[in-house]
Amino acid sequence: MAIKKKVPVRRHGAPAGTMTDITLPVFSYQNDKLADLIVAAWANVRFTSGAVDVPHLGDALKDRDPHTGLPTDAARATATEAVNFFANMDLTSAVIITEEEHDDDYTMQDPKDVVFVLPNQPRITLRPGEHFPTAPIPPVPNYASDLLETAKLLMACTPNGI
User: Fold this and answer.
1) Which residue, 112, 109, 6, 20, is CA-closest to 64?
2) Which domain holds residue 92?
3) 3-state helix/strand/coil string of the chain
4) How many other CB atoms sit within 10 Å of the CB of residue 89?
5) How many CB atoms lie within 10 A of CB 16?
6) Residues 6 or more apart in contact with residue 128 via CB below 8 angstroms
7) Cα distance between residue 102 and residue 120, in whole Å
8) Average pLDDT for the chain
9) How confident is the model at residue 145 (pLDDT cuts 50, 70, 90)?
10) Residue of 1, 38, 101, 109 with fewest CB within 10 Å of its CB?
11) What span, in angstroms and rounded, lies between the C-alpha atoms of 87 and 67?
12) How many Å apart are CA 131 and CA 43, to the nearest integer?
């Protein structure tokens, strides 16, 4: 169970352009704002921010190419905008995958990707009287990114990051 990344083989004698998969380290980055993103994805609410306007956030994040099974460009754009919006980050490329995709050894398609795993919704039980939000998620006026949060995340997911 892992997220894998394609990297060039650097062994002496390996043919130029030869690629291999490496397993990325698993980490946990707890952030209340990312937790809000999880709830919004579970609730499958409308999400509008930047160039992204999707009627069902959870469905848009899980949109997959029917031939490859990989996240579509639209799913990647939605994930990037949603992570940057909710967590005040400035990531170039984010991908949100399911736990099943993680457990099937998901391989990153772009070295700029930061891969997030959306927890399975059946893990939760709403208490009596609790419900998911139904209102659309509005954009924050004068959205300002927080480069410190972005740096903390990237430090956490970079082996021996400083």
Assistant:
1) 109
2) 1-9+29-122
3) CCEEEEEECCCCCCCCCCEEEEECCCCCCCCHHHHHHHHHHHHCCCEEECCEEECCHHHHHCCECCCCCCECHHHHHHHHHHHHHHHCCCCCEEEEEEHHHHHCCEEECCCCEEEEEECCHHHCCCCCCCCCCCCCECCCCCCCCCHHHHHHHHHHHCCCCC
4) 24
5) 6
6) none
7) 11
8) 81
9) very low
10) 1
11) 32
12) 9
In a domain, 86, yes or no: yes
First to last CA, the chain: 26
Measured CA to CA, the distance from residue 29 to residue 150 in angstroms comes to 11
Residue pair 85/140 in contact by the 8 Å Cβ criterion? yes
For 18-74, what is each residue's pLDDT tens digit?
Answer: 888 777 777 777 777 888 888 889 889 999 988 899 999 999 999 999 999 999 999
Is 95 inside any structural domain?
Answer: yes
In whole angstroms, give the CA distance from residue 51 to residue 84: 13
Alpha-carbon distance of 156 to 29, in angstroms, equals: 7
Contact 73, 60 (CB under 8 A): no
Q: Which residue is associated with the tokens 């083989």?
A: 9
> Does residue 112 fall inside a structural domain?
yes
Residue 116: inside a domain: yes
